UniProtKB/TrEMBL annotation:
It comes from the Bacteria. The keyword Secreted does not apply. It comes from Kribbella turkmenica. Residues 50-142 form the Methyltransferase domain. One of its GO terms (molecular function) is methyltransferase activity. Keywords: Methyltransferase, Transferase. PANTHER family: 2-METHOXY-6-POLYPRENYL-1,4-BENZOQUINOL METHYLASE, MITOCHONDRIAL, METHYLTRANSFERASE. GO terms for biological process: methylation. This is Class I SAM-dependent methyltransferase. SUPFAM superfamilies: S-adenosyl-L-methionine-dependent methyltransferases. Gene3D superfamilies: Vaccinia Virus protein VP39.
Length: 271
């Protein structure tokens, strides 16, 4: 199958509408530790030029700025960028937030010492074009660092649950492929030497499985948007299926949720 028949721009328009629904930073802010670990793995230094692609509310950009890097975040959802600016101002961090598409980054060639993304660029529908842009923006000898949910992990299962109710567009590959080594090798080829490929776990912590379901229905834009199209028994069934997602990954024994979600932390050097 080729990508020539896929209308990626229309898909991105629908994606953007999803991220502008709900209040994604309420979910995304809980993932800050993933960004902190990623910039540590990439060995960010003071003065490094760092680009956070599909930054959302700026987790990785802010992590880099805490280490005195020159941090820029780019995303195509203006509401997420605005919350990023508010967060950075509250923490007195000099982060630049710019509206832009991960598949057509508004930056010069080889402009950054580190180009990174935490569970962000993986959602770009044209995987190859997004990967090409990451390479283009990275200076030779600089680094690309990615944190991506894996297919078999909890978030992979969450996406499978959602896809039963809203099948993904034809011709678009799963975002969780970014959480596999083989897919990274395919996308980047010999342009990147991967120096670290580590499986990590982020633990989702909620009051209960039902609280997990409610939180994602209220705040995780794409799921909020989907839930808004359902009513009656369909909505109740969808809510129950979301509540079931964390159960196999939950190691809490007190009725709360402490569910492990696997992701791939990848750091490579741009040749």
């Amino acid at each position: 199958m080729t990508n020539t028949t896929v209308d990626f721009e229309a898909i991105k328009d629908k994606q953007r509408a999803g991220w502008q629904t709900g209040d994604y930073p309420r979910v995304g802010n809980t993932l800050q530790i993933i960004a902190e670990l990623l910039v540590e793995a990439a060995d960010v230094r003071a003065g490094h030029r760092v680009l956070d692609v599909a930054c959302g509310q700026g987790n990785a950009a802010m992590a880099a700025a805490r280490r005195f890097a020159e941090a820029t975040g780019v995303d195509y959802a203006p509401n997420l960028l605005e919350q990023g600016r508010e967060r950075a101002a509250a923490e007195h961090l000099p982060v630049t937030f710019t509206e832009g598409d991960a598949e057509n980054l508004p930056v010069s060639d080889s402009a950054f010492d580190l180009v990174c993304s935490t569970v962000g660029v993986m959602f770009a529908p044209n995987h190859q074009k997004a990967a090409d842009e990451l390479v283009r923006a990275t200076a030779p000898g600089g680094k690309i660092a990615l944190a991506s949910w894996t297919p078999a992990g909890m978030i992979g299962q969450l996406f499978k649950t959602v896809s039963k109710w809203a099948p993904p567009p034809a011709g678009v590959r799963s975002p969780t492929l970014w959480g596999t080594e083989d897919h990274l090798f395919e996308l980047f080829g010999d342009r990147v030497e991967w120096v670290a490929l580590n499986r990590r776990e982020y633990v989702f912590r909620y009051h209960s499985p039902e609280h997990f379901s409610e939180w994602f229905r209220d705040f995780y834009g794409p799921i909020t948007r989907l839930a808004g199209t359902l009513d009656g028994e369909d909505l109740k069934q969808f809510a129950r299926e979301l509540a079931d997602v964390p159960r196999p990954f939950d190691h809490a024994d007190d009725g709360t949720v402490a569910a492990r979600a696997e992701y791939l932390e990848a750091v490579g050097i741009r040749r």
